[in-house]
Amino acid sequence: MKKVLIFARSNSPFKTVRRDHDYIISNLIDLGYSIDIYDPKQRILMDLETKTIHSYNLFPSIFYKLKINIFLNFLSLIYFSRKNKNKYNIVQINYLREEYLVIPKLINNIGDKLVICLFGSDINHRTIIKNNFTKIYDKADAIIASTLNFAKTANSYVKENIILNKLNVLLLPQDHFKYYSDFTFENKTESKLKLNYPLDKIIVVLGTNSTENEQHEKMIEEVKKIPDLSRFHFIINLSNRLNTVLERERNIEELLKREFKSISYSINIRFLSYEEMALVRHATDIFVNMRKIDQLAVSLMESNLGYANVITGKWLPYIDYTSEVKTTLIDSIEDLSSSINIIANSIDSENNIKILQENRKKVIEKYDSNVINDWLNFYKKLSVEN
């Protein structure tokens, strides 16, 4: 039985903070892999086979509430790495935290093979440590990114072609796509009725969550310029995974009250389950994604599965997606109002409906079918090489 360690944050016992990686883990367990998760912030090792938790706290808990907790977490990581030297067959890093960059040899010595999964924040949020401590890429046996374009960007921050030479392009499996399987274009109206959306208006969804990266304020300012706004109902997504209402959410609510006085709109501020969000996607006519930075937003594919038109920024590294899925790309948010208006004028046309149906097929083929098998085959190959 192959033993695998995954470095990842967790939000509850025996789970990571990502549903897609939990899905991969559950499939690996079904194949007979033994999986452990080390959470560097909580300083705990979770054994998924025995369902036990081992703490690597070196100091009383009160110390971790002080400003020095980052340093203490780092000491716990060093201690963990030494205690578990050569214990695993495969070590996988989900999110390349700065702590790992500083002690690449210790991290590498934990297992026979080292795998690095790259995400948007790993590359987009630069620091002195990220720019200068890159030895861990040399140590890695395999590096995973969800798109080639993103991997090229990541590679530009390290010497030579270390990342590209070790690259495995693996899309993230989305088990929640099952909630979209029975949707048809013809029954979109049923979803609108269930959500009490006005049937005589075009439903436009702005953003995915409440973070500043979504640029809600700029979108709100721009959509006011659309001619004949009475045709539209806007949905503003302001939820977050903690299901809290913080200052940013309240500020946007106040902004909408001022700017959308005569405009039809509603707010999703409560955290929605995957099944609830699927219904929203299906009831949507136009989805707008204006993130400042990103790797590849799952909300794009969800919208395609729900037969929604997608508008997104040309500045985002989505070429692998947009080269196959017909999307409205705009140069800047200033182009948003005209793009929404153009789509609205042909929303019920035969050609537009055909495009939406084809987009759904392409997303199922590329982002759903066989994605989990690609991950399992990657692990099988890596295990054979040990």
> Which secondary-structure class do the elements indicate?
alpha/beta
Low-confidence stretches: none
Q: Main sheet?
A: 8 strands, mixed
Distance between the termini: 12 Å
Whole-number mean pLDDT: 92
* Structure annotation, total helices: 18
- Into which percent range does the helicity of residues fall? 40-55%
* Beta-strand residue percentage: 15-25%
Radius of gyration: 23 Å
How do the strands of the widest beta sheet line up side by side? Answer: 4-3-2-1-5-6-7-8
Number of strands: 14
- What would the principal axes of the Cα set say about the shape? globular
Walk me through the structure.
- By secondary structure, the chain is an alpha/beta fold.
- It is built from 18 helices and 14 strands.
- It has helices spanning 19-30, 69-83, 98-102, 104-108, 120-124, 128-132, 135-139, 148-155, 162-165, 188-194, 216-223, 247-259, 274-283, 298-305, 319-322, 336-345, 350-367, 371-385; strands at residues 3-7, 34-39, 44-47, 52-55, 88-94, 111-117, 142-145, 167-169, 202-206, 232-237, 264-268, 286-289, 309-313, 328-330.
- An eight-stranded mixed β-sheet has the order 4-3-2-1-5-6-7-8. Strands 11-10-9-12-13-14 form a six-stranded parallel β-sheet, with helices on both faces.
- Helix 1 packs across helix 18, helix 10 (188-194) packs across helix 13 and helix 11 (216-223) runs parallel beside helix 12.
- It is globular, with a radius of gyration of 23 Å.
- The two termini are 12 Å apart.
